[in-house]
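Worked example

This section walks through a single chain of length 766. The input is the sequence exactly as stored; nothing has been trimmed or padded.
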Amino acid sequence: MRVSTTKPFTDHRRSMQYEANTPMSDSADEIDLGKLFRVIWRHKLVLISFSALVTVLTAMVMSSKTPIYSASASLLLEAEQNRVLQLDDVYGEATSAQEYYYSQLEIIRSRKVAEKVVATLNLTEHPFFNQPNETQPSLRQTLVNLLNPPEPAPPLSAEEKAEQKKQSVINYVWGSMSATPISKTQVVNVGFESQSPQLAALLANAIAQAYLDNHMDVNLERIEKSALWLNSSMAGLKQKLEHAEEQLAVFEERESLVDVRGIKSLAAKELEELSGQLLRAQQEVDQSELLSSLVAGNSDKGALAFEDLNAIPEVLNHPAVQKLQQQTLAIETKKQELASVYGPKHPKMIAVNAELAKAQFNVEQQVNRLIKSLGTDTRQAKQRVQQLTAAIAAAKTRFQRLTRVENQHRELLQEVETNRNLYEAFFSRLKETAQLEGFETSVGRIIDPATVPYAPSKPRKSLVVVLALMLSLMLGVACVLLIEALNATIRSADDVEQKLAKTLLGIIPLINPESNNASSPGRLKTLFRQEQRSSAHTLPANYYLLDQDRGFSEAVRTIRTSIQMLGIDSPTQVIAVTSTLPGEGKTQLSSNLFYALGQLQKTLIIDADMRRPSIAKNFAISSNQPGLSNYIAGTHPLDDCIVVDKHSQMDVLVAGDLAPNPQELLSSPRFKTLIESLKDNYERIIVDTPPILAVSDAILIAGLSDALVYVIKADDTKEQQVKAAFKRLQTSGINVSGIVLNQVDLQKAKSYDAFEGYYDQYGYST
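Given that input, the structure is written out below as tokens.
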């Protein structure tokens, strides 16, 4: 089919428009501030009216508000208390400075301080709290009382009324007082809000002073309670101390203790010495037994020579043997020195040999005596070990007993010391408390008393009114932008290109046919919001030829030029005109486009909407005139079906008789043959088709057309409906050549600035 080979996006107008909109396409995520401003400017009257209304109402409400005066006194909180003799148990404060200050702030805001202020100033008798109650219940409260009448309150006695009034005054003071810390200082602003400036200053100073007085009262109460508790505890502590001292004395007398620590140290020293002696005695036993075993082992092998005995390490290492061996070695050394000088028969040599022989004899005698005394030494050493073992056991017993005595003595002594220290501490605290009974310290001081305010602190009427103006404007702008964002209709060239990605061929302005001077911009009224209007408000088919509205005529010519530009690459003889839904003005466009093209080329218009035909009616042709359905059905020849328009002398092919099966007729080969034969006789053929979403007839016709012009009713047809129709066309392989926005309200469109080049906005055609 021809339409599939047509290049609907190659026309010069679309190329220029896309080049102009390329930056916007490249930065689709950017915010178009100019567009937002135009949207806001279009609704400026609504925004101004809404803001003015809100501002006036706010001003009226603010004018009825009672002014509130605020006064504040500066109070310095002391970081550390001036404590006398460090009475920590009386003035126990939080260790953290931050926690301490926060605690003091809560105390200042407490109900107890409010009660003290009311009692000190006798506020129940103050004129401010004894004014007649002239306030009227609110409308809401009045309605609640009417719908649900409250039960009558029981009568109150004079005391109950006084107490009720007192609680009311306390609640008022408590709810209006405040304490605000100043950053990075120990200063607190104690404030009060009231309708009376004098009362605000009075109560601000009274609250600060009440806090200081309350702190001193609490301290004095603590001191008194501490004194009572110390007095009641002193008697019991004294009895405990006396009982502990008595138990200690009895124990020392029973155990005959003088210096238990010295006795224990002597016992420990004795035990240590005995342990050392036992260790040495045991070593002697071990050495004697070892030497005896070695001698016995060697004697079993035969007679023991001196050399054999002297070779035993235990004998050789014996102290007496080693001493004699050293003497022998010294004589041998002397002999060697003399031998180098004298001969063997020299008297000195003879003397030294005799001395050496005597020394060797002494060594041999000592070894023999050592061997003979082994048994006796071993027995003596064992007896010594037994004696020392028994002595150590007795010493351990004495030491353990002394340890137990010392532990008991230490426990009794510790109990006495503990009771004495506690008694002395209580006695000292009691004396300190007695000295503090007449002494008062302050937690802080007032450094800047409150003064009577001359101007109210709230409500800040001017600020509230300005904020109401700004917030109402912001709210109005937000609502306008939200409504604009939620608008799902197609109403501008940007919508066509951005939402639908199609080319805008042109627009048809909204026309009031009853205007005599329709060309005036003020005459372009929004009368054609729907196509289902009475015939009195329907544009005539030859409205283009009447040239009553030059803006309308120029708009049709612009569309004609756009269609002609579509045929640069390939001819567009057959032009199908369709829409999404009925009532969008496709027939009106087809008729006027028929006249516009007919001024330049031989043109034929065909009414292919055989379900709801309207061309015959618009062109004042008889309803009995045979037409397209009659020709396809073969009941009438083509010459009988084509009629000549009386206004333009151009040919018109109406729908003819209503057919029960329009789709079968349009899909028949005879219809295709008709189109091909008409293309030989006419340069342009306009085909008015049914809507896309209503029936599928337009898809069949578009398949035989060279171009498909899609009509959308501006600011009425939904984007999703148009996209659904496009999807049906794309499924059939049909492209939309261009879009025409119909019934555009030019007065509203001026705020869009979205139709430049599509209609005469400068009055040039006039």
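What to look for: The first strand starts at residue 69 and ends at 77.
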